[in-house]
Design goal:
Structural class: alpha+beta
Subcellular location: Membrane
Strand order of the largest sheet: 1-2-6-5-4-3
Helix content: 40-55%
Shape: elongated
CATH superfamily of the domain at 22-95: Cytochrome b5-like heme/steroid binding domain
CATH topology of the domain at 22-95: Flavocytochrome B2, Chain A, domain 1
Protein name: Cytochrome b5 type B isoform X1
Distance between the termini: 85 Å
Bound molecules: protoporphyrin IX containing FE
Strand content: 15-25%
Number of helices: 6
CATH architecture of the domain at 22-95: Roll
Radius of gyration: 26 Å
Number of strands: 6
Keywords: Electron transport, Heme, Iron, Membrane, Metal-binding, Transmembrane, Transmembrane helix, Transport
Largest sheet: 6 strands, mixed
Function: Cytochrome b5 is a membrane-bound hemoprotein functioning as an electron carrier for several membrane-bound oxygenases.
Order of helices and strands: EEHEEEHHHEHH
InterPro entries: Cyt_B5-like_heme/steroid-bd (IPR001199), Cyt_B5-like_heme/steroid_sf (IPR036400), Cyt_B5_heme-BS (IPR018506), Cytochrome_b5 (IPR050668)
Length: about 150
């Protein structure tokens, strides 16, 4: 079962205690039969055993992803908002943080941002401001001399 439990939020003493169950990927990988079928989608673990024969896209595609990370195939199909809402019913926990790998398309700047040192974010405005300063001085001195 779960290897770790932790608080899912920073709320303390507010009466709403949320706890997340974490699962190791090796644990998820064992749940790959039609009697017990788990999937990972975007770092979340879903027990979709009872959903198998209800899936509009068929049982087979789910069985192919059994016990594995199905994020890519789930997105490739272009599932509707309804389908995304349905996921909640089958959510059982999160992938253990030490098993998480950054997804392509994630917002982690160290993996996807081509501007790793981020110098471009400030160098262009500064150069632009200097140029504007020169232009301003050039035009004001020209209008004074004429
Ligand atoms: C628990 C996870 C999933 C849920 C709740 C889910 C739900 C749904 C729903 C509601 C539909 C009907 C169309 C829509 O509303 O988008 C659908 C269609 C479909 N799903 Fe899933 N799905 C899941 C996982 C997957 C995975 C992992 C795959 C791919 C390997 C997949 C492949 C398909 C396909 C091929 C269709 C048919 C698309 C079509 O006919 O246009 N689904 N799914």
């Amino acid at each position: 079962m779960a290897t770790a439990e932790g608080s899912g939020s920073d709320e303390q003493g507010q009466g709403v205690e949320t706890s997340v169950t974490y699962y190791r990927l090796e644990e998820v990988a064992k749940r790959n039969s039609s009697e017990d079928l788990w999937l990972v989608i975007h770092g979340r673990v879903y027990d979709i055993t009872r959903f198998l024969n209800e899936h509009p896209g068929g049982e087979e595609v789910l069985q192919e992803q059994a016990g594995a990370d199905a994020s890519e195939s789930f997105e490739d199909v272009g599932h509707s908002t309804d389908a995304r809402e349905m996921l909640k019913q089958y959510y059982i926990g999160d992938v253990h943080p030490s098993d998480l790998k950054p997804e392509s398309g994630s917002k982690d700047p160290s993996t996807n941002d081509p501007c790793k040192s981020c110098w471009a974010y400030w160098i262009f405005p500064i150069v632009g401001a200097i140029l504007l300063g020169f232009l301003y001085r050039y035009y004001t001195s020209e209008s004074k001399s004429s």
